Structures are given as C-alpha cells and as structure tokens.
Amino acid sequence: MDEIQIASLLKSSELFPIPQGLKLSYGTAGFRGDAKLLESTVYRVGILSALRSLKLGSATIGLMITASHNKVSDNGIKVSDPSGGMLSQEWEPFADQIANASSPEELVSLIREFVKKEGITIGDNKKGAEVWLGRDTRPSGESLLRAAEIGVGSILGSVAIDIGILTTPQLHWMVRAKNKGLKATEYDYFENLSTSFRCLIDLIPISGNNKFEISKLLVDGANGVGGQKIEELRGSLSNLDLEIRNTGRDGGVLNEGVGADFVQKEKVVPLGFGLKDVGMRCASLDGDADRLVYFYIPSDSTSDVKVELLDGDKILSLFALFIKEQLNILDDDKEGKQSRLGVVQTAYANGASTDYLKQLGLDVVFAKTGVKHLHEKAAEFDIGIYFEANGHGTILFKESFLSWLVTKQKDLTATGHGGSEEHKAVSRLVAVSNLINQAVGDALSGVLLVEVILQHIGWSIQKWNELYKDLPSRQIQVEVPDRTAVVTTSEETEALKPLGIQDAINSEIKKYQRGRAFIRPSGTEDVVRVYAEASTQEAADTLAHSVAQLVKSFLGSI
Ligand SMILES: CC(=O)N[C@H]1[C@@H](OP(=O)(O)O)O[C@H](CO)[C@@H](O)[C@@H]1O
Ligand SMILES: [Mg+2]
C-alpha cells in the first residue's frame, strides 16, 4: 500500500469514528445493530468489499444494507461474493477485526497487514474494484449507503454503484448474473421469474388435475421491500391471483406485528389478516424478502389469531416431492443418469418433517444454523434443497447436472421426443433452476414455485399441510450476561459448555414423549436460543421453559 492510499484511508476514516463501546461480530448473516451506531461499520465493510473485489480479479461484489426481520430502527450490512453467495467465511475474521478497530491508525494497520497477507495490489492501473450497493426500505438506508460508498471509494480506483432499493435476494441474483456475464438488471430479474414461471405453468398436465381453480393468494409484505417488489412483479404474471397487504404504503411499520419471522415464531396472523380470511391461502415474507412462510386460518377457528403454519420445512417437503417426481420420470429411462437429490435442514427443523423426508427416501443432512452453512452442503448434490424452518431456503442445481439436463432436453427434441413425458420432466427441472434463485433463498421466487407446484398437483393449502403433522414445538430466548459461554457441537444439537448443562438438559428431555431440546447462542442477537419439541404443545412449552431455567441457572440472567 503506498502513501497516497494510506492517506486516503486515514482521511476518510476520520469521518466515521467508531462509537464508544461498540463491539460487533459478522455473525450468522453480517453485522446488525441499532442503525445510529452503524456508520463506521458500514464504511469499513465498504473497504472490505473493494479489497474482496480486487482479490478476485475485479469481480463485482455486492453489499446489502438491511436488518431483515429486525425492527425498523435497526440496520445491518452483508456482503455478497461474486457467485451471489455469502462472503467467504475465510474473510469473516478480517471483517470482525476492522469493524472493531478503535482508531483510524489501527484500522489502517490492519488493512495494510491483510492486503500484504492476501497479496492484493491496489491501483496499478488495471481495472479497479467494483461494488454494487443495495438497500431495503429502512429510512437509515440512505445515509448508510453513503458511508459504504465512501468506504469503497477510499480504496483507490474503486467504483461503488448504487443499484437502489432491492430485496436481499435480488441483489445476490444480480451480482451472480453480472459475474457470469449475463443480463443483470432488476428488469432482467423480473423477466427471468415471469418467463420461467410461465414455462412451468405451460407444463402442467392437461388431464387429471386441470380442474384446479386458481384461488387467490393473500401476501403479507411485512411492510417492507418484498411487498413492493411483488406488486411490481404482479403485472407480468398470469395464472396467479395475488392480493398484497402490508406493503408499507398504508402506514404500517416494517416487521411490527407482520412478516414471516413474526408469523413463524408466534404462530399468529399478521396485522391486516383476520377471520374474514378463514381458509384462504396466505404467504408471509420477511423484511428483506429472503424468507417465506405460508399459513391459513383454520375454518374451525374460534379465535381470530391462531394460524396453521406451513413453514420452511413444509415448503422444502413440497419442493422435494415435486423434484423427486420429475427425477423419477427420468430415472425410468434406463439410459438416464442416477441423479443425487439431497435435502439440508438445521436442528430447528421439525422432527416430523425429517421423518417425512427420510420416508420419501431422500438423503437428509444437517447443517449449522445460518444459510451459508446450509448452502455449502446443498451444493454437494446434483440437486440440493435447503431450508431453515424459518422459511429461508432454495434449490441448488449443480452446473454439470444442469448442462446434462439441457443437453438431454435438446437431444429429446432432436430425436422427435419433444412431447414425451421425459422431455416435460427435463423441461420442468430446467425451468425450476431458472425460477428458483441459485444465489440465496428468495421469497419471491419461492412463492412462484409453491404456487405453480400447487396448481400442478391440484392441491389446496390444507391438502399440502397434510403431508405430515408438525410435532408441537416451542422456541424461546434467554438474555444472559455472556452468551458466548455456550459452546455447542458442530450440528448445534448438544452443548459442550458450560460443563454439565447438557446432562441436565438430557434429564429434562427424558421426561417427555418424543422430547427433543437444544440450546445455542444466537449469531444475530445477544441471546441464547432454546428450542423444544414434544408430543403435545403443553409438553413442548414446559420442556422449553425448564431448559430456559437451566440456562439461567448455569449462566445467570439479566
Ligand atoms: C432460529 C433462527 O431462526 N435463527 C435465525 C437467526 O440466526 P440466529 O443465529 O439464531 O440469531 O437469523 C439468521 C439470519 O437471518 C437465520 O439464518 C437463522 O435461521
Ligand atoms: Mg431476511
């Protein structure tokens, strides 16, 4: 790093002093916190992203300013790698270090050291770094975006491009497309969704299920960016009747009593929904539209709040069923290739969903909480489907498998088998790979895939819900003085520390039929999370509370 570069960093970092006492960690999904405290963090992540771009031959990097399902006064920042996936975990320690550097001098010295270690060259007249910046609808987004721009700009020769208000998955999709040399505007994103959706609709079998009447889908937009974007998309879709509520334009507050996180955790209807909607198919997005859950109000409902929830596990099961059906058609072809379909869940997956998926004959593997972990494991399969119970997930197609599908599709057409069942199955799989976001979980593409599959098999939401019955579960969180005192095994199902707590948890679990419980420190909030499952709701609740009690007695409570 030369003198001019150092001077540039020192000068810009003086604009963003770090708030006293601020201690941040990149965590499960980037930095998050009170928006008022985040300018220095976002500025520094701007620097990191420019360096990341340089390290990868000036590939485009994405920065998303969002705090997802958290309250509107919070904000956060996450980095998209050129593949559209999350920032490589190898760079997370550097992100932590620079976010917490206490002075401009310390910051510059950390950067110097890192640039040297990584062999990054700055400003040698070749193409500089390129960073695309997106943000959600939070009012703090605009000033944080400026901080990011200054951060990027302080690495000589770098450009930051503001691509506007977007959902998180849109940004990841656009970054991926850009680096693959494909058309990468927001318009292209919408066009891609509507074309592949249309293609899947056209491939719905004519006989049998075509009596299916398209019923209206009610969408809860969490008063955020997702509601607005799905409104934009609606115009280009046929065969879908959408009513969008909580778009944020009618005075509602982002994520307050609305959105996928609220509905999934509380199992109650979001604001704007009620008894008038009994039996209707409803979907809820989160604040940055990377999560999706479905729900309906049961017809025998006596209260106007309780919902039947169809969470990420149930969406995963529906997707798995559909994909498997298409693969079975191909596998009937003796020359067909034996494809590897796998599903990835976390410890939060409902036990009944895991039983169901295994009984379908699927390879079920477990990953740590956080989509970066699930994504990695799903990428090992020809087709890997991953979902967190909270509704974040997608379907990944291995490049080599996709090329095999595309070649097969062409061969079948060329040999006069264009109208065969096999050709249709291959075409459906190719269309799914285009529809469903290959970069990250995406509520918009998820809604479209759920809707077309339901039309394809002629199912109502109630019928879909009957795939299996969720075991009653309860999730709670405990505030403790130091959540890092909890250390778990790699699958997060057992606590290694504090010593003795796991034995105590095990003896609680033993008291319940189908009991299962675990604790882990949250990677996004200052809490320890408790999850419990058992054969009745009352039992799941009691188990969760007694485990929470153990957490308090081992760690102390606030
Ligand atoms: C139990 C739960 O839902 N945890 C969420 C939550 O992580 P925690 O590390 O549990 O705070 O936020 C993550 C980012 O959105 C998401 O990936 C994850 O699933
Ligand atoms: Mg989100």
Automatic annotation (TrEMBL):
E.C. designation(s): 5.4.2.3
Alpha-D-phosphohexomutase alpha/beta/alpha domain: residues covered: 59-92, 115-179
Catalytic activity: N-acetyl-alpha-D-glucosamine 1-phosphate = N-acetyl-D-glucosamine 6-phosphate
Swiss-Prot/TrEMBL keywords: Isomerase, Magnesium, Metal-binding, Phosphoprotein
Domain Phosphoacetylglucosamine mutase AMG1 per the UniProt entry, residue ranges: 184-293, 311-459
Keyword Metal-binding belongs to the record: yes
Residue numbers binding substrate: E388, A389, N390, R520, P521, S522, G523, T524, R529
Chain ranges of the Alpha-D-phosphohexomutase C-terminal domain: 478-549
Family note: Belongs to the phosphohexose mutase family.
Name of this protein: Phosphoacetylglucosamine mutase
